[in-house]
Amino acid sequence: MRARSNDQLEAHVPERTCILSRRTAPKEELIRLALSPDGEVAPDVRARAPGRGAWVGVTRAELDTANAKGKLKAALQRAFKTSDVKVPTDLGERTEAALRQYTLDRLGMEARSGNLVNGTDRIENAARSGKVAMLIHAADAGEDGSKKLDQAWRVGGGGPQGVIFPLPRTILSMALGRENVVHVALTDPAAASRVHHALKRWRAFTGPDRGPEGGEPALGDGSAEKDLTKE
Fold first, then answer.
1. CATH of domain 96-206
2. Which end of the chain is more exposed for a tag (fewer CB within 10 A), N or C?
């Protein structure tokens, strides 16, 4: 009975089609664009704006190119069924900024909910005890400190190494309202899944740059986070 219920839920995952690539995917993987009352298009990364929306599932470079060539406006006119569509030239930049802020807000919410710990000693203890579902290092974290926590996470049954966050410790600290946040550990599997999704969508839009310094595990390949299906 339970398996049948899960199958039914999987069969009803809402999907949308990217107006540029025509690729169909779960709407949580795509980015919604909304049309304001005055006809201007804006990113709606939380998918909460009222009215008709259009969905894109391309990188920023692809969005910028389509915008510069007029292909994006034409696709939006078809999607919104109106010719009164104003597409900002910096729509790609606005979308990236919105995805970045959403990810930071998500981390902040998990911190306030008690699902996140920071501090090397606290993270190491939690990781060795098998209580870390996702491990994150700031872009400017020291190599030695990151490797030490990666090893502790492996000992506790986690992934081979944590994710390198695309921003430095100063930004992480401000997002969490804490001082000198260099490393972050999500201790709740559901919270880790939410952060993972926000970060994956942001990085998918900015492109496969693998972080400012390169080399961190690609999100979505199973190496960046503990198996969240296990409790």
1. 3.30.1330.30
2. N
